[in-house]
Design brief:
heterodimer, A: about 120 residues, alpha/beta, 4 helices, B: about 200 residues, alpha+beta, five-stranded antiparallel β-sheet, 6 helices, 5 strands
Chain lengths: ~120, ~200
């Protein structure tokens, strides 16, 4: 499997663990999951990118869309990204200024920004 | 100059069905070819990302225009490691100056996108750093994407417009990780050629 998605609940938040490769082929799966969670009432979302081995522009686009959807419905979406090689993509595209990016899930859950 | 400047025949040519599933195939071959050709290990991530972005863009273009021909990826290893990704989708074309062609990559494609893409096209300005300026995300404009995002945190209407958002982000990534990038009309017929190259060690 190129992409693995696991959901769990922790400290009143939904943590979506993403592992594998998020690209033009697999990103629709991530989009559907995020969309289902947000519109299914899981409005405080933490997306853990710790297991991501590859992320492309399609994956970044899905995260941007998810953030917008979360804001639209009064929820929150924050990211956990411990890997420098993935973080770099956010910096290159300026998206590090758009997202709240944490190093660990605990940090994300403790952050006021995670709502 | 640039990656497209090498006239030598490519060492390896891939013809990929224009399907998202095969973009990964192209990335894997690119990384293997780069390693075999002698590209520095530290650059392999960039090669993988850049080839992936160029192929993803080509596949999106083929889907957008309903083009069923394969996408061609050419690898060369003479003097430098070069990769060219050639799509067969209609492009702005006409102007062979790389900067203008690069602009066409965004402006032309979005302007000419088919009916099904109208929603996406109209949403594009929400992440398009060229708003209020002449059309065309020159790759040099990349930092503005961040600037734009900071000014307007409410970007695109969710879920729709994903392809356009990905196109903009993909260009930003390509421009940032490939120092030697040339975007020109394909040599024959419709299409765009995205050429990149990396130095070889020793």
């Amino acid at each position: 499997v190129d992409l693995t998605l696991n959901t769990r609940t922790q400290a009143d938040h939904t943590v979506l663990e993403v592992a594998g490769e998020v690209d033009v082929y697999t990103a629709p799966g991530l989009r559907d999951r995020v969309s289902d969670l947000l519109d299914g009432g899981q409005r405080r979302l933490v997306i853990d990118l710790g297991g991501v081995e590859f992320l492309d522009s399609t994956g970044l686009g899905v995260l941007v869309a998810g953030l917008n959807r979360a804001r639209e419905i009064g929820g929150s979406l924050s990211l956990v990204c411990p890997q420098e090689r993935v973080l770099k993509l956010f910096r290159i595209t300026g998206l590090d200024e758009v997202f709240t990016v944490h190093g660990t899930v605990d940090e994300a859950l403790a952050s006021p920004a995670a709502g | 100059m640039g990656g497209s400047g090498e006239d030598a025949a490519p060492t390896v040519v891939l013809r990929l069905p224009a399907s998202p599933a095969h973009v990964r195939t192209a990335r894997l071959v690119a990384a293997a070819m780069a390693r075999r050709s002698g590209v520095d290990e530290g650059l392999l991530d960039e090669v993988r990302l850049a080839v992936g972005e160029a192929c993803a863009r080509a596949v999106r273009q083929h889907e957008r225009y309903g083009v069923h021909e394969p996408v061609t990826v050419e690898f060369g290893d003479r003097g430098s490691f070069s990769v060219a990704v050639i799509d067969r989708a209609p492009s702005a074309g006409g102007d062979r100056q790389p900067a203008a062609a690069r602009s066409g990559l965004v402006a032309g494609e979005s302007a000419e996108a088919g009916d099904g893409d109208l929603a996406e096209v109209s949403l594009m300005p929400s992440l398009d750093p060229t708003v209020g300026r002449p059309p065309g995300v020159a790759v040099a404009d990349v930092p503005d994407i961040g600037g734009q995002a900071r000014r307007r945190p409410d970007l695109a209407a969710p879920w729709r417009g994903l392809n356009a958002t990905a196109d903009s982000l993909g260009l930003a990534l390509l421009g940032a990780v490939v120092q030697d990038l040339a975007v020109t009309p394909a040599a024959a017929g419709a299409g765009t050629r995205v050429a990149m190259s990396w130095p070889l060690e020793g």
